[in-house]
Amino acid sequence: MTDQTEHTCDVVVLGAGPVGENVADRTAAAGLSTVIVESELVGGECSYWACVPSKALLRPVLLRAEAARMPGVGSLLTGPADTAAVLAHRDRMVSDRDDSGQVAWLDSAGVALIRGRGRIDGPRRVTVETDDGEIRLTARHAVAVCTGSRAAVPQLPGIDSVRIWTSREATSAGKPPGRLVVVGGGVVATEMATAWRGLGSRVTVLVRGERLLPRLESFAADLVAERLREAGVDLRFGVTVRSVERAGGAGDRVDVTLGDGSHVITDELLFATGRAPRTDDIGLETVGLDPGRWIDTDDSYTATGVHGEWLYAVGDVNHRALLTHQGKYQARVAGAVIAARARGEAVDATAWGPHAGTADGVAVPQVVFTDPEIAAVGPTAEQAARAGLEVEAVDYDLGQVSGARQYDPGYRGRARMLVDPRRGVLVGATFAGPGVAELLHSATVAVAGEVPIDRLWHAVPAFPTISEIWLRLLETLRDERRAAGTA
Amino acid sequence: MTDQTEHTCDVVVLGAGPVGENVADRTAAAGLSTVIVESELVGGECSYWACVPSKALLRPVLLRAEAARMPGVGSLLTGPADTAAVLAHRDRMVSDRDDSGQVAWLDSAGVALIRGRGRIDGPRRVTVETDDGEIRLTARHAVAVCTGSRAAVPQLPGIDSVRIWTSREATSAGKPPGRLVVVGGGVVATEMATAWRGLGSRVTVLVRGERLLPRLESFAADLVAERLREAGVDLRFGVTVRSVERAGGAGDRVDVTLGDGSHVITDELLFATGRAPRTDDIGLETVGLDPGRWIDTDDSYTATGVHGEWLYAVGDVNHRALLTHQGKYQARVAGAVIAARARGEAVDATAWGPHAGTADGVAVPQVVFTDPEIAAVGPTAEQAARAGLEVEAVDYDLGQVSGARQYDPGYRGRARMLVDPRRGVLVGATFAGPGVAELLHSATVAVAGEVPIDRLWHAVPAFPTISEIWLRLLETLRDERRAAGTA
């Protein structure tokens, strides 16, 4: 028998990743007593097993590649990246997976932490299973589910007997495998292929489709494929995995049988084949929702199909945009919504208002830290066409921009902007090339700010920076419109 | 005796730097017969003796510094930058000072080039002194002065006998001097101190005032001073130069006598003490203007104090913003104005319209390529106060931004945004830190686009990038307003 205690508070947040932390920060700042429940580390997937360690592995690899291409610097490099130093750096960036700093932050924000597994137990109720017994919480105003997602692994013959890698193992491994096979072609697959190849592994990437990064512009994916191949990655398209088998115990080689019956032998096998919601064991069934499913919400992140306005789903778990920064944005909005309702105020559902996650639909930015980097916001040209949006697509070779050649004399890159000709605004942009990560926010501001194209001519990019791509894109739009007789 | 020929065209442009090229491009594209006159190289100061070669010297130095600070990469570097390789790279970036590529571009744009010295000779008339005689041009619609600026050197005892460096020699030198003394503390002084120190020179910087970069935020200047000192630069403030003397012929050491009577001995002496207009020998006196002065214009770049609307002054020469990119912006506006007047159309002087260089006054971006980089748009807090603008200044330590620490684990930097509380928009921003050059355009879009602060909350910065500084600044503004009871 375990002890039981009962507590009542204003808000319970399930999951203390960046999203849960931000919801709790906002509700606590609004004067609502807030309890956050976490079964693993405070800081969540992002801080320990995703964005932070992956970027810590990638940045030295990408910086070394940039340095290698630069006259007067490349010749100074004595070898490939110093793997042990990079891994030690990665461990420092994840605080050696010690969450005391994050716990202190929660404390300073006035948020109470309960370590344990939380499950919804009917409307406004959460039960937490802790080491010391069960804690039963009643939330006066809101329960916010911020449990995120985990790697989705296909049920293949033999997969349970092979200690495979998912994004967790791929970002936390203590040494580079001699051989690494990556299954998948999305962001995790391309980033981890880039990182471990740069740290010395022989890498094979098995992609079911015919291209990498299917949710991004294909010209960007092609540039990444080109550089991965030049770096020695064996990139195979149109390949499926039929079964897997580990020859002996852990540490022994893995035999991957492909759809055509051929075999690939590897030391580690990374499945980067998508994400699944962490909702299978959080009591959703007690409030009429399906466990194991993504949770639908409206633009205020209030769960739909639940009686009353008390259940919120924020971050990956609502499947609107599986990105840390977008989840934190959602958290700020959801926190404001919870606070408004607690004060008895009306929720302002106006697009772009404080209670609407409008950006989710139209202005989600993403940076892929590959060589070259890909930075994109809004739909791709193909996604826009599928959605029935009329857009003008304007392309320009980034390698023709003076500031890009200064950044990297062997610059290879390309940019595309998508313009809505009726509204006269930018609706999307993709930059693919070295050093474009920070350039993205200019496009995000233009899209979210609905800045008219005519006004963007007055936003002068500094010379000589890569940002001059803006001028080239605007000039190209002008000239193409003139040639088409539409200007 | 030389031959004389007479020509009539629509537009004459004096000076074929980036600014003149862009005016000519726009007027030629509008169907106006356009002649451009250049006495040196087509492409101008920027392409051969300023922005392009300086950035080509600086980027390898700054990239090496970034690489040196990165775990797993820094340990691979075997020494300081390979100076010979950097200088060869610089020469390639300036096309070995061969302007044939630029000449071909003018040709493709339909612009006629005359090589020679052009002088205004009364209203709408220009005389060009060429190797083959004099060409007398009559412009039906416009003469655009785009002759730019040159280094301003103080008249000090001995200066004419010393072959000093100006920005030209500092960006085109064939080898690093053993010792370099830089007089000045502005952009040229700090960038060239950074470059030549990185390429092996012993560098002393003599600054009359008490800080570097007086037109930028002082916190940014302090960061640059700190890194310069760490790199071994001897930075001296409150110092004036009384006289200079070269001991023997060229190649011998220079003796610099300071205001306090002390001496500094150097191999080369760079005066980076400001700019002067190149208007002393272009015939301004024939149309009632003063030779050797900056030319005043209105927002359409039409010269004031000249009868009729035919004389334009574009770029450095009008002293509105001495930056290549801003000059090119002015050129696009001026070209549109000239074309409109030639068609007999009204000039639309509305702020932010196609015929007004509105950004000059409020949204001029600038990047200083030092370690750390400084990227700024709009006024500084001090400039805003002097101009009587009410602004809220919001500061944040860039080193606390996760994406910044990923970029450079030893990140040192700081950002400031200036908000107009009545209009609810950003009016200025300064970012000082490694890798902020491309981040600037997000602020330029926000300022020129007058995007409301409330909307900027929906412009989500990608994690983990340096751009998350935007979120931190907005949060700080929110919290400071709450603490002040103004939100």
Explain what the structure shows.
The structure is a homodimer of 487-residue chains. The first copy, chain A, is 31% helix and 24% strand. The first copy, chain A, contains 15 helices and 21 strands. In chain A, strands 1, 2, 3, 4, 5, 6 and 16 form a 7-stranded mixed beta sheet that branches. Chain A has 487 residues and is an alpha/beta fold. In chain A, a hairpin with a 2-residue loop joins strand 5 and strand 6. In chain A, helix 1 runs parallel beside helix 9, helix 3 runs antiparallel to helix 4 and helix 3 crosses helix 7. Chain A is globular. Chain A folds into 3 domains: 176 residues, FAD/NAD(P)-binding domain (3-Layer(bba) Sandwich), CATH 3.50.50.60; 122 residues, FAD/NAD(P)-binding domain (3-Layer(bba) Sandwich), CATH 3.50.50; 113 residues, FAD/NAD-linked reductase, C-terminal dimerisation domain (Enolase-like, domain 1), CATH 3.30.390.30.
Question: Would you tell me which CATH topology of the largest domain in chain A applies?
Answer: FAD/NAD(P)-binding domain
Q: CATH homologous superfamily of the largest domain in chain A - what is it? A: FAD/NAD(P)-binding domain
The greatest interface here is: A-B, 86 and 86 residues
* Oligomeric state of the chains present here: homodimer
What Rg of chain A do the Cα atoms give? Answer: 24 Å
Count of runs of 4 or more consecutive helical residues of chain A? 15
